[in-house]
Amino acid sequence: MMMTSRNCVHTALKAASFGVTAFLLVSCAGREVAPPASAPPPLTRVDSPPEWRPGDRWVYDWTSGNNTGTKTVEVLEIREVNTIRYYVMRIGDIDHYYTFELQWSGSLRDGRVEARMVPPHPWLVWPLEVGKRWVHRGSYEERDTKSQQDATFAVVTAEVVAVPAGRFHAFKVVREGSRRDSDQYWYAPEARWYVRWIGRRGDVEFEERLRMHDTAPRLIPKSAPETPASKTQ
């Protein structure tokens, strides 16, 4: 029901003591409250891996049984080994090597190899989209042991995931291994890495949830996409 101009002002003056005068005056003037911003469209496909830079950092809360803690993952540098370029990521006191496709190749502690996978473990395969499947068969090597490991992967859905860092549109990937191990992890393009991870190794289950993520400064930011209005006629 519309209020007349006189009734509107009278009501606003009566309501002044309650701090709602501004709201009433705006409503009387006929101005509409803008609707909330629409949510981003659901994920359909991501064609290529994100770009990481030294200084990019992710912090996760983790739980395993009754144990809890925090894990920090940071990109230290980009290093070339045998003509292949890797992201070097620090987790605790261990450096992990990931290909530019975000496939895990190995880890070092104090300059010595802790473990490696040949060929690299394909946590993600591009383009990424619901229904995509892939298989990996590799040799997992530690300092004194070597074992064959097989795994199958599938992108099962795209959904919104709520974690301490916020709400993210993410692809859910399921991995099943041949050694009583499995993983469910949610890759979010906005975070440029996983935002949630549930894993099982034998009888031990753990979970990680993203608490925060920092993006290192880009000296040369990506160009903004061209819009129809900016095109020359």
Give a verbal description of the structure.
There is one protein chain. With 233 residues, this protein is mainly beta. The protein has 2 domains: 1-33, no CATH class; 57-214, Beta Barrel (YmcC-like fold). The chain is 8% helix and 52% strand. The chain has 2 helices and 12 strands; from the N terminus they run H-H-E-E-E-E-E-E-E-E-E-E-E-E. The chain has helices at residues 5-15, 21-28; strands spanning 57-64, 67-81, 84-91, 94-99, 104-109, 112-121, 133-142, 146-163, 166-177, 181-188, 193-201, 204-214. Strand 10 (181-188) and strand 11 (193-201) form a beta hairpin. The longest helix is centred in the first third of the chain and has 11 residues, at 5-15.
Helix content: under 10%
Low-confidence stretches: 1-37, 224-233
Secondary-structure element pattern, one letter each: HHEEEEEEEEEEEE
Largest sheet: number of strands, sense, barrel closure: 12 strands, antiparallel, barrel
**Average residue-wise pLDDT:** 83
Q: According to CATH, what is the topology of the largest domain?
A: YmcC-like fold
